[in-house]
Amino acid sequence: MRWKRLIGGSLVVGAATASLAVGGANLWISRGSAGDRYAVADAPTRPVALVLGAGLTASGAPTPYLAYRLDIAKQLFDEGKVEVLLVSGDNRTHSYDEPTAMADYLVAHGIPATKIVRDFAGRDTYDSCARAKRIFGVDALTVVTQDYHLPRAVATCRALGIDAIGVGDTEGRKYADAWASGSRREKLAAVKAVWDIRTARDPILGNRESGVQDALAAP
Length: 219
Prior knowledge:
The protein has a single domain (about 1-215), classed as Rossmann fold (3-Layer(aba) Sandwich), CATH 3.40.50. The model is unreliable at about 10-20 (pLDDT under 50). It starts with a helix and ends with a helix. It contains 7 helices and 6 strands. Helix 1 (about 1-35) packs across helix 5. The protein is α/β, with parallel strands linked by helices.
């Protein structure tokens, strides 16, 4: 019976520790993003919008969630809230190219190609924020994603030294199951975000790129 008590006690301690980690991480994210989330009409101006990837369909087009993000980025651009759109996504295989699909969507919807910059190594939120700062030299931006994801995205970018605000999509709520699943997943993703920041994990790096500065200078 003693070993059963020991196992039971260990499980209780483990569950309590995990609960504290999740709760602490989410509190940090809430505080780190407070006051920095806006609707398009109310958003302060920033030079760059960072649009985070959200998957492609089997045909290679943006998923509905990604299309909603891109639509917000277009609104920000059209209203003069941002000058350049930095589209950051996954391109780890030749057959899967989120940034190019994102750029093609924006061009098809009237955004000049000269005002779009592609980041091909934005494999997750942390990587996209870190690369915006370290590879593309961005110091201030508006991050665009789904509303439930926005606190983590803003807090992560700000923790990495970027003057970040955010505009979140709410159209995706019509996909109720996906929205609920994403919201639940955010609770655990907060722990990874805090770990990445505390350990200063390096994303995929490379030479500094002038694409954002070139796009800002383009007429």
